Amino acid sequence: MVAADDWRALGTWVRLAVTDDAALPRARQMLIDDLGALDLACSRFRDDSEVVALEHARGRATRISPVLADALAVALAAARLTGGDVDPTVGRVMVDLGYDRDLEALVELAGPPRVRPAPGWQRVRLDLERNEVTVPPGVLLDLGATAKARAADLAARRIADALGTGVLVALGGDVRVAGPAPAEGWRVRVQDHAGPPAQEPDGPTLSLDHGGLATSSTSSRRWVRSGTQLHHIVDPRVGFPAWTPWRTVTVAAASAALANAASTAAVIRAERAPAWLAELGLPARLVTRDGAVTTVAGWPVQGVAA
């Protein structure tokens, strides 16, 4: 019997579901612990986080926790895969645009933002053998998207292995399943924003029995500055929210981290995205601002309800 719970953490909605209802309380605590460790390591909204400390390390090589080392390794791998479209050095760019706190705390901002390119992910030096990183002076890392997706991957696998249950972990638009799936598969609704599950709009529903799924959207995580609507998917080459025809991009992959890197980069790549996703062989569904849908790489039709 599937049991589920929903709550908020890391500024997004969390859903946890397991196939063994007796496992839910322990699975929930395991996920809460994982997300707490991730927040302390990776949040740029906490003065006591490791990411904030690195900005003030003055370019010195710094020992970091295994949690941050893993999250940073995934972020740098995403940067390589996407040719720099997903760049973890955009933290100060986001602050300059006004995204310097949880969105719930943002009010309309006055004054034009400072626009400047990201410093570039190639300038970050990570030594995984020593859990040591060198970040150039003044560079603030932003690991928010890739770190959440990686957390979903790790937590789903850890819960499945420890408790012997099938599990689904959804952190906003990043979903990962592990262990034995329900007979009908995990029913996952593809949506345009990361709101609470009870309030999601109608959309196609996918039956997922393995791997990960990620949706990147320009219609969520928005704020206003000097009368201009901004969103959180930034083109690191210009330091401004990406202009794109896509309202949402959803990608299926072997992991939530890979799906997230691809869906985020697809938003930034605009019209070039479908061909790029097809070349990678990643099934994807792209929706324009007026609702037109493009699918690539055999986006699954089995188990999908329009």
TrEMBL record:
Taxonomic lineage from the root: Bacteria, Bacillati, Actinomycetota, Actinomycetes, Micrococcales
Protein name: FAD:protein FMN transferase
Region entry Disordered, spans: 193-220
MF-aspect GO terms: transferase activity
Enzyme Commission designation: 2.7.1.180
Domain of life of the source: Bacteria
Keywords annotated in UniProt: FAD, Flavoprotein, Magnesium, Metal-binding, Transferase
Organism: Actinotalea lenta
Magnesium keyword on record: yes
Cofactor(s) it depends on: Mg(2+)
Signal peptide: none
Broad enzyme group: transferase
Catalytic reactions of this protein: L-threonyl-[protein] + FAD = FMN-L-threonyl-[protein] + AMP + H(+)
